[in-house]
Amino acid sequence: MERTYLMIKPDAVQRGLVGDIISRFEKKGFKLVAMKFIRLTQEMAEKHYGEHADKPFFAGLVQYITSGPVVAMAWEGNDVVAVSREMMGATHPAKAAPGTIRGTYAVDIGRNVIHGSDSVASAEKELAIYFEEAEFVQWDRTV
Ligand code: CMP
């Protein structure tokens, strides 16, 4: 079954959006298989966002993502990588469709509420930063 890594970012935790965001994925029918409430270290943030290391916004991105707790999650389901990105909306919240998570809650690309893996390969890499294999919970979602 396909898996993705979703992370509710510090701005969303501060604004009390955790429940609504998780609820959207639950109600869609995806299955939560791992979750942690953590504060990223500088090292974790640099590893996660390593592909952006040469971008001008990199230092600010690392500063922001380590500024407070995040909710790190693994979700499973059919086409969960692509569908969850549709549900999140465009990376730049000003371009995100109304009704999507970013379209509903954000306007600033530097405070865009949620991260989701952009491919199955990225999901595998990102999940390995946050979870040990034994932390993925085996259970059946029957409805
Ligand atoms: P995310 O989906 O977590 O993946 C990379 C992140 O980099 C992205 O969301 C934004 O939060 C951030 N980002 C991308 N472009 C910019 C930018 N121009 N300025 C600030 N942050 C950016």
Automatic annotation (TrEMBL):
An example molecular function term from Gene Ontology annotations: nucleoside diphosphate kinase activity
Source organism superkingdom: Bacteria
Listed cofactors: Mg(2+)
Subcellular location, record wording: Cytoplasm
CDD domains, sorted: NDPk_I
Keyword set, alphabetical order: ATP-binding, Cytoplasm, Kinase, Magnesium, Metal-binding, Nucleotide metabolism, Nucleotide-binding, Phosphoprotein, Transferase
Broad EC category: transferase
Reactions the enzyme catalyzes: a ribonucleoside 5'-diphosphate + ATP = a ribonucleoside 5'-triphosphate + ADP; a 2'-deoxyribonucleoside 5'-diphosphate + ATP = a 2'-deoxyribonucleoside 5'-triphosphate + ADP; dZDP + ATP = dZTP + ADP
Nucleoside diphosphate kinase-like domain mapped to chain residues: 1-138
Binding residues annotated for ATP, in chain numbering: 9, 57, 85, 91, 102, 112
Cellular component annotations (GO), alphabetically ordered: cytoplasm
PROSITE patterns: NDPK, NDPK_LIKE
Function: (Microbial infection) Catalyzes the phosphorylation of dZDP to dZTP, when the bacterium is infected by a phage that produces the substrate for the synthesis of dZTP (2- amino-2'-deoxyadenosine 5'-triphosphate), which is then used by the phage as a DNA polymerase substrate. Major role in the synthesis of nucleoside triphosphates other than ATP. The ATP gamma phosphate is transferred to the NDP beta phosphate via a ping-pong mechanism, using a phosphorylated active-site intermediate.
NCBIfam families associated with the record: PRK00668.1
Family classification: Belongs to the NDK family.
Name this polypeptide is given: Nucleoside diphosphate kinase
